[in-house]
Amino acid sequence: MFIRKKPNKSGTVSVQVVQKTKGRKQRVVKSLGSAHPSDTAALETLVQQASSFIQEMKGPSLPHIYEDEDVIDGFVSSLNNAQVQVAGPELVFGTLYDRIGYGAIRNRMFRNIVICRLFNPGSKLKTVDYMERYLHVTYSVDQIYRFLDNLCYRKDEGEKSNDGRKPETALGENESTSPPPAKANPTDFKTRVEDIAYSYTKKVVGDGISVCFYDMTTLYFEAAEEDDLRKCGFSKDGKHSCPQIFLGLLVASGGNPIGYEIYEGNIYEGHTMIPLIRKLASRFGFDKPIVVADAGLLSKTNIEELTKDGYLYIIGARPKSESDKVKEQILSLGMKYGDVVEIEKEGGVRLVLSCTEKRARKDAHNRQRGLARLQKKMAGGRLTKQNINNRGYNKYLKMEGEVTISINMEKYEADAAWDGIKGYVTNTTLAKDEVIANYSNLWFVERAFRMNKFDLAVRPIYHRLRNRIEGHICICFTAYTIMLELERILKAAKSEITIYRAQELVKNMYAITYTLPKSRQVKRVYLGMDEEQSELCRLVMPGWRK
Predict the structure, then answer these.
(1) What is the mean pLDDT of residues 289-302?
(2) What number is the average pLDDT over the span 155-166?
(3) How does strand 290-293 pair with strand 313-317?
(4) In the Cβ-directed half-sphere of 188, how many Cα atoms lie within 13 Å?
(5) Cα–Cα distance for residue pair 15/35, rounded to 1 Å
(6) In degrees rounded to 5, what are phi and psi of residue 431?
(7) Where are the alpha helices (DSSP H) in 187-299?
(8) Residue partners of 461: CB distance under 8 A and separation at least 6
(9) How far is Cα 471 from Cα 146, in angstroms, rounded to an integer?
(10) Contact 531/100 with Cβ under 8 angstroms?
(11) ω into residue 63 within 30 of 0, thus cis?
């Protein structure tokens, strides 16, 4: 930080405390006031006030506290590495961990792994090494693995775990590094995590959960063999030859979590939505919210089950998969960019349709790319009779005679009539624009998956056993709720600090622990922070001052 005298149009001079941020940008930290250039005394007073403010932000220096330099030198020389540790992650993320309510889970190992996942995601081996080196918290890898074995334990009480040992519960009023003795069913751990997340979601949402969003993603494994959970199936990551699992997530507005579940990698995603909604609704007792889901979950069975349970829904539609009568009706509308129309269907269901230029460009690009892929395969002689099907852009292929395969360009050109048209099936009474607006918020779930996959590194998953996989997902789910809360705080304060910047800032917040020579009292003091770090601490902990 430095002092700047800034001339004003009025002829006065403002005295400001300025800090350089990223690149060459400068940010005004505090404005002390202004005075006329001829009033040198007033200007000097403002400059002194600015100097005092800078000194206050930096904290007192040792020479002001001690006059004997030998005392200072002796104190500094007595320090060792074990007395200095990275304190930012616990200070910032630990505060949010407790505020959300996870502090009620009295397990130090779970807390440490979750916090480490927030700022230094990686394998459990890497996590163990980092915690020992920088946080002075020592666990063995075996302790971590045994903890994961029982974090989301699914077997009956008394049955042996995956490695043949009798299970130990991950729950309990235990602050030690090892799991406590078995006192409760270990499956309660995931339940407690979801309960705490849902309770906090209700506080954030405020007026109850009126809309919920459901979607699924795939998490693949770099493995060759399948098992009961990890199976090959349709991969949203394009890793069709890799075993995978499905992760289903139900969130409220803003992406605030309600609950989640994992499924076998070859399950049909349409079979997962109704059971999870019923399970969470029964446990949490929330009213019937509007269920929003993408077209992958649009099936006759799902629609019937949602209707039978009394749910309103908004689900992405596939206009080109409608009946010939409906398709003719849609094309006869001659929709232009910006048009929003609706078509009444049976049982009080409406098909809402919109047409946008952005969607049209995307559809045209995808068609052209699909055509180019087919032409490339044809040129290489890689197309056979097995390629004649209606999957994807293979529908443009046709057989001529017995052996000749060609591309049906008429069908390709006819598809252009659908460019830009997006559909939504709903049984609500919402206006057309409200239906589209609610569906557009489905990106809350998509962003949740993106944050988990990239920011929290939920993959690659270095586990093979089901209990450990479920434990890993539970840790990432907990870390996601904390990251979401930090983002909410930063946005509410209109801070320039992003969650990604916060992850970097906490790595350089240090604390020193020392013992007073006479009283033998152990004290812990945070070392001086820069302005960005101080701002982050004040936002997370209002009223905080080092």
Answers:
(1) 86
(2) 43
(3) parallel
(4) 12
(5) 8
(6) -65, 160
(7) 188-205, 273-284
(8) 219, 221, 469, 472
(9) 10
(10) no
(11) no
Whether the predicted pLDDT of 251 surpasses 60: yes
Tokens of 465: 């056993």
CB atoms under 10 Å from CB of 302, counted, come to 19
List the one residue out of 241, 237, 233 whose CA is nearest residue 267: 233
Strand 404-407 versus strand 421-426 pairing type:
unpaired
| Sheet with strand 211-220: strands edge to edge | 257-264, 244-251, 211-220, 290-293, 313-317, 421-426, 350-355, 340-344
> What's the CA gap between 78 and 359, in Å, rounded?
66
Give the C-alpha separation, 201 to 208, whole Å. Answer: 9
Q: What is the pTM of this model?
A: 0.75
Distance CA 129, CA 163 (A): 24
What gap in Å lies between CA 534 and CA 48, rounded to an integer?
22
How distant, in Å, are the alpha carbons of 147, 197, 535, 537 from that of 185? 14, 20, 42, 38
Q: Are 176 and 137 in contact (CB under 8 A)?
A: no
Q: Is 289 in contact with 306 (CB distance < 8 Å)? A: no
Contact 543, 120 (CB under 8 A): no
Flag whether pLDDT at 53 surpasses 70: yes
Q: 14: closest CA among 43, 55, 41?
A: 43
| CB 229, CB 469: distance < 8 Å | yes
Instruction: Check residue 77 and give its pLDDT.
Output: 81
Instruction: List, in sequence order, every beta strand (DSSP E) within 318-462.
Output: 340-344, 350-355, 397-400, 404-407, 421-426
Quote the tokens at residue 347.
């049982």
474 three-state secondary structure: helix
Q: pLDDT-based confidence at 359, cuts 50/70/90?
A: very high
Tokens of 433: 């624009």
Whole-angstrom distance, CA of residue 81 vs CA of residue 97: 27
Output the average pLDDT for the chain: 83
What does the radius of gyration of the chain's CA atoms come to, in whole angstroms?
Answer: 30
C-alpha pair distances (Å), 446 with each of 214, 287, 293, 309, 327: 10, 24, 11, 26, 29
Q: How far is CA 201 from the centre of its chain?
A: 14
Average pLDDT over residues 375-384: 74
**Residue 116's pLDDT is what?**
92
Burial class (CB in 10 A: 0-12, 13-18, 19+), 371: middle
**3 state DSSP class of 512:** strand
**How far is it, in rounded angstroms, from Cα 461 to Cα 117?**
13
pLDDT > 70? residue 5: yes
Q: Token digits for 452? A: 């988990």
Pairing of the two strands 421-426 and 510-515: unpaired
Q: Are 399 and 385 in contact (CB under 8 A)?
A: yes
Residue 405: beta bridge partners? 399
Count the helix, strand and coil residues of the chain and give each as a percent rounded to the nearest 5: 45, 20, 35
DSSP 203-218: HHH-S---EEEEEEEE
